[in-house]
Amino acid sequence: MKLREWKNKFFRWLDGDYDVMKNIMEGSLEPDENHEQAKRDRQAAHKEMTSSGFSQAVINAERKGFYQFYIGVAIVSCIALIGVLLFTVNLLPRYGEENPRAVEVSDRYIEKGLEETGAVNIVAGMILDYRAFDTLGESHVLFAALLCVMILLKKDKKNMDSQFDDYYQIEQDAYFDVSKDTVMRKVGVLIVPCIFVFGIYILLNGQNGPGGGFSGGAVLGAGLIIFESAFGFELVDSFFTAKVSMAISFVSLAFYSFAKGYVFYMGANHLHNHIPKGIPGAILSGGLILPLNIAVGLVVACTMFGFYSLFKRGSVGGV
Amino acid sequence: MDIIRNFPMMTVILSLFSGSLCFVLKGRTARYYTLFYEVFLLIVCSAILWYTVTTGTAVTYPMGEFPAPWGNELRAGILEALLAVLFMVIMIVSLLAGYRYIDTDLDESKVNLYYAILNLMTASLMAILWTNDLFSGYVFLEILTLTSCGSLIVREIGRTTLAAVRYMILNLLGSGLFLLGVVLLYDLTGHLLMVPMQETIAEMAQDPRMFMALTLSTGVLTIGLSIKSGLFPFHFWMPDSYSWSTPTSASILSSLVSKAYILLLIKIYYRAIGLDVFEQMPIREILLVLGIAGMIVGSLQAMHADNINRMVAFSSAAQVGYIFMGMGIGGIAGYTAAIFHIMAHAVTKSMLFLTTPRLAEVSDNSLLFKKLEASALRNRDAGLAFLVGSLSMIGIPLFAGFTSKLQFALAGVESGSHVKLVAVMLALAASSLLNAVYFMRTLIRIYSDPRGTVSKANIRQHHRPLYNIPMVVLGGLNLFLGLFSWVAINLITQGLKMFG
Fold first, then answer.
1. Which of A61, A187, B123, B141 registers the highest number of CB atoms within 10 A of its CB?
2. What pTM was estimated for this model as a whole?
3. A192 Ramachandran zone, left/alpha/beta (phi>0; psi -120 to 50)
4. For B104-117, what is each residue's pLDDT tens digit?
5. A144, A148, A157 member nearest B107 (Cβ)
């Protein structure tokens, strides 16, 4: 093939006009009447959108060379910001050199962390005991993200496309669904249990080694996603419905809030809290760190699978 | 009454819990629960205010058994408690005045998610008010950013989605810069808690090299927070996000959320950097210039708006400029003026944003000026509320807006610099004039009836006394801040004394 043809193809691929995998991998859907109708609907909507006053304003701005100006300003301000930040970094204490002013807090964490929190993993002790308030907020950041994605993607009367469009979507989804695939199923049977066990191990072992709620929950969530890809939503919905997922999130977050509220209250009022620290290194050690890790892990797993499910079919779980 | 010392912690924890509770409740139950909970929170915050005023000290509350440099900490003084009370009042009023729009604007299945988001927003507002720790500030700022986006997209029309995308991009840029600033400060001082950080910084600032690094990191952090609060060159996300969202969101976003970022900034200047060190940095002058530019540009853009909500939104950009001008003037007087303006603007702007949909209701549900002609005559109550809000924005005596402009002028006099004084006075004059032009134009438009479309029957149809209660509360607060401004100003000065 000639060089020019390759170049042409490459730029068309960059623009998204050319699909390299077309007619090689899956083949394409046979266009039918509904498909054509959906296409017409889409074109009509696009025409309506581009003819509105707002789009006209955008086009006019484009003609006046606003975007050249915009890109110019963007480049200049990025370079300026990079320059300022590099200059600031240059003023900071060198890496590896000890900053005599900045050791008070970290020294205490390293020296007394084990004794005060009961956790061998100092990081877990730090984020779930010394600075538990931040982590409490952090787990609600995740929850807030789930709420936003639900608002955006959960199917309702307002954000559904036309019925033809939806019909086409369902057809397409069914066509590209890999859950009927034998290879996927067989491999799924092998690896999904391992992933779950590994996730639970990370979750339960957060106070003793690398791991904890966020990473363990992410592994569990990934396990659920692979499980769904291999066996389809029917099987997941038999045990993990929207209600279950919401209930798990709610109970975990509520437990987290109240457990930490109790610790904050006891600590601030100099009362003795009744949570045993346990023997460092054992599974049941580190006081509240283990239950909090489990709570965070469950929220993370539910959120991750919730995102996946919302993106794939527009609901948190089967209802 | 030492139990009150626990209340700041409780406000945050219970609000977070309410957020996850509303997630599993049905829409209507979630609404009643949220309303009930916000009233409860108002009482709690009033108790904190009462406690701090009577004891005259700030409540310092360690989060857990580890004291200040090692664990998180909350601190509630008079200023924080006063603002918390005001925030809760505005939250309740926005809910009361806006719930019927929530029911029509939102899909039924998503109403409970909206209330969950409002509760998380309350939690983060409270946490940002009370926190004594830079990183907790960042975490809750992140919740605030996400929930604000959620409260925009919840209406699910193209305009709000577009506005939310723009809001999200700019706000994430702001969060990123703020985080960079926090990381740089942490690297320099080794502390995240504000009070120990200030001690280290006071000693470090003697070294010119370190002072340079401190200035740059404070600058990065300031840019981040000013993007989020909508200071002049970064205010372009404001009009679309405020004018198309559901009225409750518009009111809360404009009067509470962007103000919370400014309060965090003031807190960092006061408590983490230390005012003495900060006043030596050149950042203050930049804030003054940008603030004045914002006042003028925001007002000019408001004059060009064709839609009443866009006009009010651009006027918000101008008011953020006022607040930053107060911080630029500096000194106790400057900060007092800035914080008084935060209060005055919160009361006024929420009133305007909650009134415009009622005017639109009687004008074919359109916010365009040409449709709004004589709308105040068709719905007299809403018209009166808009009148009160506009007069306060222009700065007519009796209303809060006048007192805050007076405070800015006094701060300018007390700054002791002629250039600043002249700049502040000219900016105040120009901005008041521009405000008067575009608000008067709107008032004349909504009160005149050249085509004679108003009849007695159609006035009575829109008279619903119950809808006016929130407006009466906001109008009363506005008049209170205008007539008895010394109460608020006394509290603010006392609060600022124990703030640092």
1. B123
2. 0.91
3. alpha
4. 888 888 899 999 99
5. A157
Domain assignments of chain B as residue spans, ordered by start:
1-262, 282-500
Sign of CA dihedral A269, A274, A275, A279: positive
As a whole number of angstroms, the distance between CA B184 and CA B204 comes to 14
Q: How far does the CA of residue A179 sit from the closest CA of chain B (Å)?
A: 30
Q: What are phi and psi of B307, to 5 degrees?
A: -140, 135
Q: If you measure CA to CA, which chain B residue comes closest to A99?
A: B188
> What SS3 state is found at B95?
helix
A91/B213 Cβ within 8 A: yes
pLDDT (tens digit, 9 = 90+) per residue, B210-264? 899 999 999 999 999 999 999 988 888 888 888 889 999 999 999 999 999 999 9
Query: Do the Cβ atoms of A154 and B109 come within 8 Å?
Result: yes
Closest-CA distance, A10 to chain B, in angstroms, reads 30
Query: Can you spell out the DSSP letters for B149-212?
Result: HHHHHTT-SHHHHHHHHHHHHHHHHHHHHHHHHHHHHHHHHS--BHHHHHHHHHHHTTSHHHHH
- Within 10 A of A176 (CB to CB), how many other CB atoms are there? 9
Six-digit token string for B144: 């605030």
- The answer to whether residues A233 and A178 touch, using CB atoms and an 8 Å cutoff, is no
Instruction: Find the residue in B nearest to A253 (Cα).
Output: B20
Residue B233: its pLDDT value, please?
86
Closest residue in chain B to residue A271, using alpha carbons only: B65
Kindly tell me if the per-residue pLDDT of A214 is higher than 80: yes
Residue with the two structure tokens 């703020």: B178
Question: Could you tell me the two tokens for A195?
Answer: 């992933």
Alpha carbon dihedral B464, B469, B474, B480, in 10-degree steps, equals 120
For residues B142 and A141, is the Cβ–Cβ distance under 8 A?
yes
Tell me the backbone φ, ψ of residue A2, rounded to 5 degrees. -75, 160
CB nearest A138 (choices: B124, B139, B184): B139
Question: How far, in Å, CA of B397 to CA of B344, rounded?
Answer: 13
The predicted complex's ipTM stands at 0.92
Residue type, B240: D
In this predicted model, what pLDDT tens digit does every residue of B447-463 receive, in sequence order?
A: 988 877 776 666 656 66
Q: Which of A105, A247, A269 sits opposite B190 (nearest CB)?
A: A105
Task: Give one DSSP letter per residue of B326-356, joined into a string.
Answer: HHHH-HHHHHHHHHHHHHHHHHHHHHHHHHH
Confidence of residue A207 (pLDDT cuts 50, 70, 90): confident
Residue ranges per domain, chain A? 121-313
